[in-house]
Amino acid sequence: MDFGFTIAAYAVAGVLFILSLGGLSGQESAKRAVWYGIVGMAIAVLATLIGPGAGLWWLSIILIALGGIVGHQLATRVQMTQMPELVAIMHSLVGLAAVFVGFNADLMINNISGIYEANGLVLGAVEDGGYKAIGLPKEINDGLSAFGQLIAKKTGVEIGILRVELVLGIWIGAVTFTGSVIAYGKLAGKVNSTAQKLPGGHILNAGAAIASLVLAIMYLSGAGSWTLVLLTILALFIGYHLIMGIGGADMPVVVSMLNSYSGWAAAAIGFSLGNDLLIVVGALVGSSGAILSYIMCKAMNRSFISVILGGFGGPAGEQMAVEGEQVAIDADGVATALNEADSVILIPGYGMAVAQAQGAVSELVSKLRAKGKNVRFAIHPVAGRLPGHMNVLLAEAKVPYDIVMEMDEINDDFPETDVAIVIGSNDIVNPAAQDDPNSPIAGMPVLECWKAKQVFVSKRGQGAGYSGIENPLFFKDNTRMFYGDAKDSINKLLPLID
Amino acid sequence: MKIGTPKEIYEGEARVAMTPDSARQLQKLGYDCLVETGAGAKAGFSDATYEEAGVTVVGSAAELWAEANIIAKVRQPSTEELGYLSADKTLISFFNPAGNEEGMAAAKDKGANVIAMEMVPRISRAQKMDALSSMANIAGYRAVIEAGNNFGRFFTGQVTAAGKVPPAKVLVVGAGVAGLAAIGTSTSLGAITLAFDVRPEVAEQVESMGAEFVYLDFEEEQQDGAATGGYASVQSEEFRNAQLAKFRELAPEVDIVITTALIPNREAPELWTKDMVEAMKPGSVIVDLAAEKGGNCKLTVADEKIVTDNGVTIIGYTDFPSRMATQASNLYSTNIRHMMTDLTPEKDGQIVHNMEDDVIRGATVTHQGEITFPPPPPKVAAIAAQKPKEPVKELTPEERRAQEVAAFKAQTKQQVTLLSIGALLVLAVGLIAPASFMQHFIVFVLAVFIGFQVIWGVAHSLHTPLMAVTNAISSIIILGALIQIGSSSFLIALLAALGIFMAAINIFGGFLVTRRMLAMFQKS
């Protein structure tokens, strides 16, 4: 098949990918949208396999099949609470693949340039009076792989640009790789999830970035492939150190940021390979991740820069002291309040995911709804460790999605609500964000659950939350603390709801 | 020390300031308890039950007053009782200090310490000793019961085989403690209950008790009840007129009116005028809980039940708590007991009259031969003052239009700026980059643009599936590896093979997990 057909197939695949992302605007259309994505991917891969340049297609198919088996295992075995880890580790694969492809391009350039030299020619030299590159003699050219031929056709300027792109692709890919691995480690609890810094902190990062830039310039001026290897090592370090410095509560931003990076890496590689589909998809993924990061940052009232550069800024002054005491309540008390309430709002957080309590919560909700109560969920944009994490968990537990509300939809309804139940969330319901200008989370939009008539907080113990910020909500007059593991606590409630 | 309770000598008073239960608690504080014989008889506590609780029963009032160091009683003491006082004695009872200057003077001359239960400040800490509230609670309940007793119909609406009964309509004026208790009782009996109060901030409390708050068509800066310690204050003439107009409108509809409006240290305001009474249906009942202070209805006769010419019963009893003597004694004696707990910090049966304490200072009217009434304002405000709400400014259509235009202009400006910057950057790239690059670059720019347009539309709840899908499709990098794997160089082929393998994991894993997630989203 000729090249034109492959490009046509890419165009179809590109449209399908756009539809696939656009379809995620609603739950129903999303189910269709995934199929668009799958078909698009199948078309793209097939067209490339039968198109020019692909050799060893039997090996490719075996590898794809093997990858498919591994992927299938991963996808079917993963618990919904482990979604953030899975997404993170998959990003790392994209990053690493981008690094490999980028290196291949460099190797190929060296190869071709070697062939040129062997024939007494210079790669990238331009014909007199024209801008077309001087090609290799036909018999040598035909002996090259399609990718080799592609490079062999390029002029000097084009090769220069190609190198810029592959440096970018490798750098971003390498940062994505180690960053995602660390993010995975933090989310899976294998790496200490508090923000950590090597001595030197930002300077170390900045130094590594500057060194990468120098190496990149050296590489572009022909210093050889060793610069590329060094640059990759530096990028790997930056990815590692950058994410080590970010606390677990900021993971939604980090994961979407890495998502974005993996897209940009793909786009950069697309440029160097001259492949439009890679560029299109890379750009789509890149902008999608960027928008998600933006949404997450806005939900935390933090600038993207401050999240990326790590952790919270120091508070401007003394934080407000919290007065009062935390009053505990037992399951009977909560059940009585729930039996009497007409409207209930549940606010799940990461604690619900940790305790795997979504099933019990769902059962509680269906029991309450069966009694005709108005039960809803309020989801803060950064609840959990992944954008939309809570929605997925609740969906898994068969909570209908039309009672799961966003913060902006439900925040005004708290004053008319009888009971608000906070399950394993902390910072997203912290009134200090509004009341205390010195709080590290001041100005962050929060769920105003304390305006409900009664608030129950299901929490393991008295300690401060993830971010270590004292939460005045727990000390409010209308708040009762329902201590215990979220799953056990909710299960204790179930038989008491009549 | 000894604490004693005499028999109430006020005519018709059935309450008693110490019950066997409270005596047991007082003994735990280290006190010896005394009671005059027959003191609890009317409230249902015999001398025998007192003795069982370890209380010494003494034969006469004189003996009791002589023996006890602390005397707890209910009603304001009579001149005779004040005569028993001496320098080492403490009296705890209702005292009406504002209208009882002679009493105070007498106590001062004797050098006795007097704690007036009605002077307990209304702060959270002192609620347990707030006898006015506990008595008002009983009065409110009893007012509804008395009204029911004199009302010829059911409270609740019923449809029976013998005909349909409409529900009674009850109006409660004044939503203080008594008013709220009346509202609660009335709604739980099934009546349609309306309630009014001059403090609009209590509307929420009224509604929480199940009654409907009657709003006036009147706009005036209302004084916050918090400024006056939670009590109502005097209203302006216009407000009063609006209020009376509303009542006049309601009078023909309501079956039972319970008025509880009292302003501290003033005569009760007239709220239910003669013409309103005349407008009411025959058989209706008015219970005036303010009868002692002249009544909210001027036809009320204190301590009596009268029936007007048009058949409206007006109840002016002033002894509602005493009519439920057992209950009232239980609550009052508990208030007294809490007061004693505060007065006995060491639990050693010795009174410590700490004049630095807001509650004790507030309630004390004479102390060591001096009149200490009125007390200074408490250090702690009773109720946090409400923050005035920022009025939302109503915009005129012109202003709104102007705002829209301004917003539109700002938006246009922002968009144009962004576009020009973007265009300049693209042009700058175009200046240095060769045409073959620009062909791809245009694709890139458009794809980013499409990405931004499409992703904003993605539902919040689908952000996780979005990440999984973008993850899967970012494995499009597999194409690069597929093109490279055919190379003759072993290293290139190896790296490409690894790339294909990893990307394939991602493609399958990403799409499968997305499908798994989306299949879970269900509508109810």
Explain this structure.
- The complex is a heterodimer of chains A (498) and B (524).
- Chain A is an alpha/beta fold.
- Chain A contains 19 helices and six strands.
- In chain A, 58% of the residues lie in helices and 6% in strands.
- In chain A, strand 2, helix 16 and strand 3 form a beta-alpha-beta unit.
- About 1% of the residues of chain A have low confidence.
- Chain B has four domains: 175 residues, NAD(P)-binding Rossmann-like Domain (Rossmann fold, 3-Layer(aba) Sandwich), CATH 3.40.50; 185 residues, 3-Layer(aba) Sandwich (Rossmann fold), CATH 3.40.50.720; 61 residues; 67 residues.
- Helices cover 44% and strands 12% of the residues of chain B.
- Chain B has an eight-stranded mixed β-sheet with strand order 3-2-1-4-5-6-16-17, with helices on both faces.
- In chain B, helix 16 packs antiparallel against helix 18.
- The two termini of chain B are 70 Å apart.
- Chains A and B meet through helix 1, helix 2, helix 3, helix 4 and helix 6 of A and helix 15, helix 16, helix 17 and helix 18 of B.
| Rounded radius of gyration of chain B (Å) | 38 Å
Order of neighbouring strands in the sheet with most strands of chain B: 3-2-1-4-5-6-16-17
* Major interchain interface with per-chain residue totals: A-B, 121 and 82 residues
CATH class placement of the largest domain in chain B? Alpha Beta
Based on the structure given, which CATH architecture of the largest domain in chain B is correct? Answer: 3-Layer(aba) Sandwich
Lateral strand order in the biggest sheet of chain A: 3-2-1-4-5-6
What's the gyration radius of chain A in Å? 27 Å
- Write down the CATH topology of the largest domain in chain B: Rossmann fold
The number of domains of chain A is 3
- Count helical runs of chain B: 18
Overall number of strands of chain A:
6
Distance between the termini of chain B: 70 Å
Structural class designation of chain B = alpha/beta
**Hey, roughly how much beta strand do the residues of chain A contain?**
5-15%
Number of helices of chain A: 19
What would you call the shape of chain A?
elongated
Total number of strands of chain B: 17
